[in-house]
Amino acid sequence: MGKxxxxxxxxxxxxxxxxxxKNRVKKLSERLNLPIIHSxxxxxxFILIVHDNRVELFNNTKKMSPLTVDFSSRKFLNRISxxxxxxxxxxxxxxxKRENSIVDLTAGLGRDTVQMAYMGHKVVAIxxxxxxxxxxxxxxxxxxxxxxxxxxxxxxxSIKFGDSFSFLADMSNVPSIAYIDPMYSIQRKSALPNYxxxxxxRLIGPGDEFEISRLINSALMQGIPKVIVKRSxxxxxIKPLQGMAPxxxxxxxxxxxxxxxx
Length: 262
Known about the structure:
Helix 1 (about 20-30) links the parallel strand 1 (about 10-15) and strand 2 (about 45-50). The chain is α/β, with parallel strands linked by helices. Helix content is about 35%, strand content about 20%. A seven-stranded mixed sheet has the order 6-5-4-7-8-10-9, sandwiched between helices. Strands 1-2-3 form a three-stranded mixed sheet. The chain folds into two domains: about 10-60, S-adenosyl-L-methionine-dependent methyltransferases (3-Layer(aba) Sandwich); about 75-260, Rossmann fold (3-Layer(aba) Sandwich), CATH 3.40.50.150. It starts with 9 loop residues before the first strand and ends with a strand.
């Protein structure tokens, strides 16, 4: 993943001294270009902790719960198992038996990606941040190995590391839907749990609104028939560069989906 711009802020720590963990730590260190440490008593802001069965991101300055991607919690499984017609995201995608091809241009921790795959859609999830991608990759692989999710759901998910603008420019097949869930600042009350939001804001910062507008615009310009933009209800709508309004919005108690169609 090239030269790391995190090397002065993040180190990798093997939780136990086993062969499996040592090998995994070595591969991650080489891929992310991050130093390996053997004690948690360091000044680094973040520590990527490698266990035998998971990878966690620990905020070493705030001492909060570590961040990991886990698709096995009862709360998450209950959420994704609801009928599509009862969920805002299902209504935004469209109710029916049709299988859509969806590109999630801001995959993040992957919860919406998995929910859309659970609904029967094929999803390509793009994540450009190397640390977030590592956590997402670990969560999907763990779900596969430990059968948190059925094999057919996992097979409908493809995760890719890279830039969404480049993906849109180079894609050979136009998906039926582009999905965008921008990273908002803590002050704007993202839907993520507070400790997750604090860690991600500190790690990668909130999304730039001009860049988000460009991303919406790029998806539309590439001929994608429907673009869905998720936001908190109290956050002003982010418009494409040409300033067009969404065709309609699906509004819930706290979350809103703006839908652009062409």
